[in-house]
Amino acid sequence: MKPLKPRSILVTGGITALVVAVLWTLLVLFSLWTQREQLDRAAHALARLDAVTNLRKDMAIRKWASFVGGMYIREDHVVDLDALREQERVSAIRGNGETLKLVSLTPIHLLLAIQEVSQKEYGIRERLTSLQLRNLANAPDEWERKALQALKAGGEMVAESMPKKGGHGLTRVMIPMRMEKECLECHRDTLVPVGGLRGAAAISVDLNAYRTAQEPTWRTIQYWHFGIWLLGLTTISFVWFVAGRRAIERVRGEQERRETETAFAAMAEGAIITDGSGSILWVNDAFCRIYGYEREEVIGRNPRILKSGRHDEAFYREFWRALTQTGHWRGELWNRRKTGEVFPEELSIQALRDAGGRITRFISIFSDITERKRSEEELRRHRQHLEDLVRQRTGELTVARDQAESANRSKSIFLANMSHELR
């Protein structure tokens, strides 16, 4: 497998970081969308609650007006006199002598007047409608018709939120107006029994005011999401940077390890790497060639399988003492091949320690010095032979010298004697 280059690692890590950043962005956007949905649901719920409250207030006013039998108001304050053409009129004189012309208002007329003021002053659009019409202006639209059918079937309230073109939408609510005994006098011709659906009060609430009230909360949510999104991107960038550096360091370390392993494997000398307890982790080809073992036969085993038995325990104690104290040992020893042949080797061992000073690896480099030992032995024998020859020749020369010196002494004595005789 071709090793990755640092640039490739950065590109791959960058793509991964980009994908994570996109997923993070989508997650934040999804969270923001859910928050917006919750605010929308809250706005709809509040609008519906306010709508129901307004309608029930109106129904309470209508019920009160029905209970008291209607009420009289000044005729000159009524805008739509045609609607009250059939209503009773009376005149009253105030204490100051002022004559007042009054017209009676039914509960429905009173309710319509209140709804008209609510729409003008507060924008609350309320209306009364029914499936049995007296006034075509109160004809139900499509939604109101469906709501009336639902109320006629026994429903107590119909509420729905719907979009509004160019706005924030509407919440529409309708509650029933049931026939009561007080209403029979005016609505007997409808043939609706007491408790039956006589009509309904509907209200449409614009959500704009509720959305406007939510704007500060919505902005706060946006700011928080932006901050969290930015923090997430910063974290992703930091993790990508740190992970990229570590990945590059791992790749470089792996490349260096492979290069070192290749260099060790190509060495003519044997190499062994063991862990701190001495178990063999790796050997090179030269080891297998020198010892005759297959690599699988020695991995995980202790180098004691190579001992020749020529060294005593004192030698190994001194060997380990020097190795653990100084971190290295160099010397010659005798080991045994797989065939049982004992041979000499020159060994160099280096101990590797971790940050805590604990030995984690032993790296051993050795070479078979059998030929060198044989050459040294032949050289020693040759030197010994030469020394013997030198000693022999020296002895012969010494004997010759001694003989010459003896002859010289004899000659001197002879000449001395002859000289004495001649005198």
State the name of the first-level CATH class of the domain at 267-368: Alpha Beta
CATH superfamily of the domain at 267-368: PAS domain
Shape: rod-shaped
Approximately how much helix is present in the residues? 40-55%
Number of strands: 12
Low-confidence stretches: none
Number of helices: 9
| Class of secondary structure makeup | alpha+beta
N to C succession of SSEs? HEEEHEHEEHEHEEHHHEEEH
Strand content: 15-25%
CATH topology group of the domain at 267-368:
Beta-Lactamase
Q: Profile the largest sheet.
A: 5 strands, antiparallel
Label the CATH architecture of the domain at 267-368. 2-Layer Sandwich
Termini separation comes to 115 Å
Describe the structure.
This protein has 423 residues and is an alpha+beta fold. The chain has a domain of 102 residues: Beta-Lactamase (2-Layer Sandwich). The chain has 9 helices and 12 strands. The strands form 3 sheets. A 5-stranded antiparallel sheet has the order 9-8-12-11-10. Strands 4-7-6-5 form a 4-stranded antiparallel sheet, sandwiched between helices. Strands 1-3-2 form a 3-stranded antiparallel sheet. The longest helix is centred in the N-terminal third of the chain and has 62 residues. The radius of gyration is 59 Å and the shape is rod-shaped.
Q: How does the SSE layout of this entry go?
A:
Elements: H1 6-67, E1 71-74, E2 89-93, E3 99-105, H2 107-122, E4 125-129, H3 142-152, E5 158-162, E6 170-178, H4 184-187, E7 197-206, H5 208-266, E8 270-275, E9 280-283, H6 285-291, H7 295-298, H8 313-326, E10 328-336, E11 342-353, E12 359-368, H9 370-422
Antiparallel strand pairs: 1-3, 2-3, 4-7, 5-6, 6-7, 8-9, 8-12, 10-11, 11-12
